[in-house]
Description:
The chain has 197 residues and is of the alpha/beta class. 37% of the residues are buried.
Amino acid sequence: xxxxxxxxxxxLLRRVSTSSAGGYVCASHASDKLANQLIQATSxxxxxxxxxxxxxxxxxxxxRVFWESPAxxxxxxxxxxxxxxxxxxxxxxxxxxxxxAADITDSKKKAGDSGGKAIIVKEMTFQVxxxxxxxxxxxxxxxxxxxxxxxLEAVESRLRMKRVGGEPDWGKNxxxxxxxxxxxxxxxxxxxxxxxx
Length: 197
């Protein structure tokens, strides 16, 4: 089900006239410097589509569906991952988006598709949370999509995958990292004029 969310009705966003990117930004998270760097990192692409999702919502397969479109040539998978988990500089994320994006044309060449030069950026809500305002400001009116799944199903799936992946005690005690579920970040910084899927 698709529905548009208005930035005015959510009350989460407000117009910031001093923003160099213009438009609506999350005032509490905005970083003009990072927004400008993101704009620079994506300036070489013909188009930009951003998918943001909590874990275990099938966001990677959903983003890969867009690979089939002739408009896309590049894909950046969770560029803020090392920023979140390893405390690396946002420069690493910028490099992943601008220079390190995967060229997905090899799989399309077999079909004879010349393709465009647009990029898909797919990110987890909790990994980009602190920098979400800058990401949003850098989009300058371009679409951002959120992929949703019932929270209980997503949590159950995340617990199962962590335990299967070798972390049998993940989430059993008081150390359950609720922020890594990604749903809290949606409430704290979800932009208006986005598509909820």
